[in-house]
């Protein structure tokens, strides 16, 4: 069984930065593709970024050039560095883990991010 615990959300002004963290509790962290998703009020959950165990990354267009996903395979941690934040980045951010055989799909409880002056 896998448990994901996010942290690092909060209130930030437009143009500011935040770093989200996701702790992976369980075995075989390197067997999972890790991702960050977000869900704004009244909207569907959407993918933000993904990272493989080999550190290949992918980003959705709204965050390209502003957000950076990373992972520490030794510490079972995933991070999302968010720079140049905009009000439209306001959402609850969720950590996700999907196993390479697609048998495991796990979610954290989410951490809220509010970008407002």
Structural write-up:
The chain has strands at residues 3-7, 10-12, 18-25, 32-39, 46-51, 57-59, 67-72, 77-82, 91-99, 105-107, 111-115. The chain has 117 residues and is mainly beta. The strands form two sheets. Strands 2, 4, 5, 6, 9, 10 and 11 form a seven-stranded mixed sheet that branches. Strand 7 (67-72) and strand 8 form a beta hairpin. The model has no long low-confidence stretch (mean pLDDT 97).
Number of helices: 0
Distance between the termini: 40 Å
Strand proportion = over 45%
User: How much helix is in the residues?
Assistant: under 10%
Structural class: mainly beta
Oligomer: single chain
Secondary structure topology:
Elements: E1 3-7, E2 10-12, E3 18-25, E4 32-39, E5 46-51, E6 57-59, E7 67-72, E8 77-82, E9 91-99, E10 105-107, E11 111-115
Parallel strand pairs: 2-11
Antiparallel strand pairs: 1-3, 3-8, 4-5, 4-9, 5-6, 7-8, 9-10, 9-11
Descriptive tags:
seven-stranded mixed sheet, 0% helix, 53% strand
Summarize the structure.
By secondary structure, this protein is mainly β. Helix content is 0%, strand content 53%.
């Amino acid at each position: 069984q896998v448990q994901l615990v996010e942290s690092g959300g909060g209130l930030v002004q437009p143009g500011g930065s935040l770093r989200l963290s996701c702790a992976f509790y369980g075995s075989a962290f390197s067997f999972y593709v890790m991702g960050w998703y977000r869900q704004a009020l009244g909207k569907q959950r959407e993918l933000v970024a993904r990272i493989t165990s080999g550190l290949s990354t992918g980003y959705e267009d709204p965050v390209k050039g502003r957000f950076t996903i990373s992972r520490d395979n030794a510490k079972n941690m995933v991070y999302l560095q968010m720079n140049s934040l905009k009000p439209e980045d306001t959402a609850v951010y969720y950590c996700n883990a999907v196993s390479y055989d697609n048998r495991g799909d796990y979610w954290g409880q989410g951490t809220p991010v509010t970008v407002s002056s």
